[in-house]
Amino acid sequence: MSAEDVLDALVIGAGPAGLTAATYLARFRRRLAVIDAGASRARWIPTRHNCPGFPFGVEGPRLLDRLRTQAQKYGVRVREGRVTGLRRDDRGVFTAQTRDGPDLRARCVLLATGIVDRMPHLFELRQAIERGAVRLCAVCDGYEAGDGTLAVYGPLPVALAHAEFLRTFSRDVSAVASEPAEPDPAMRERARRAGVRLLPVPEALRLEDDRLVMRFADGERRFDSVYAALGGDAQSALATALGARCDDNGERVVDAHQQTSIDGLYAIGDVVSALNQISVAVGHAAIAATAVHNRLPRNWA
């Protein structure tokens, strides 16, 4: 294997984190490849108003298009595909096996593989998200949902914690159990103090007139927005197979340079144990890409 066969860096994932990292690395004149399975969490975003630089909001697909266009300006080409295996040899070189293509070898790998949200069972899920009846991130859009009739749907302790946060924006917030659970006196008192209504597991959910309707044994309730707090699955099997450390949620634990416990393996974006925000993902990318450039042999002009 010659030095020419080995990339400086391989970026796995082309969401906001992966595309930002690719732009940085390309501007550092590094030899890199980007491979993406086309499942960025950002594609679910209807419109976000807390993304820096977009005072009138931006849709997730549009943001991804702009980030991809910016990376392409510097010669980045995103290859469609899925990495099925990742190994590291005794020289510290990574080999990524892909489903439909040749293996890729790189001195450093940046995992930008994200998480997959667990969604409520709702036939009209896509439409409900597009219309704001189902939302996934109160940090992102609690301001826009404010003053509406809101609910958080998830395991009751988790739902209550999220509902307390939403009380920043609305006076009418409910915590709805996604699984049978009887709140204890301490939880009831906590909800009372926060002004949050505790509700049992609904019998059914449906979208009606841009609102989410939940049917309970004693009748129906309509909510302007329902936040799903069902958790998510970190897409970190590649790092796990190499023995990289993770937290209790399966998200990667990294150092100040975004490096995992495996030398040369970096993690950025929602796959990292951190606040899942586009602005955070972009910051991860800048830190990791710069650290990768600085650790590699100099590419003098």
Note the main attributes of this structure.
flavoprotein, 301 residues, elongated, five-stranded parallel beta sheet, 8 helices, single chain, 2 domains, FAD/NAD(P)-binding domain, FAD/NAD-binding_dom
Order of helices and strands: EHEHEEEEEHEHEHEHEEEEEEHEH
Number of strands: 17
Overall shape: it is elongated
The Rg value, from CA coordinates, equals: 21 Å
Kindly report how far apart the N and C termini lie.
25 Å
Structural class: alpha/beta
GO molecular function: oxidoreductase activity
InterPro entries: FAD/NAD-bd_sf (IPR036188), FAD/NAD-binding_dom (IPR023753), Ferredoxin-NADP_redctase_2 (IPR050097)
Pfam family, one: Pyr_redox_2
Keywords: Flavoprotein, Oxidoreductase
What would you note in describing this structure?
The chain is of the alpha/beta class and 301 residues long. The protein folds into 2 domains: 3-117 and 231-295, FAD/NAD(P)-binding domain, CATH 3.50.50; 125-228, FAD/NAD(P)-binding domain. Helix content is 28%, strand content 27%. Strands 1, 2, 3, 4, 5, 6 and 17 form a 7-stranded mixed β-sheet that branches. Helix 6 (185-194) links the parallel strand 10 and strand 11 (196-199). The radius of gyration is 21 Å and the shape is elongated. The relative contact order is 0.17.
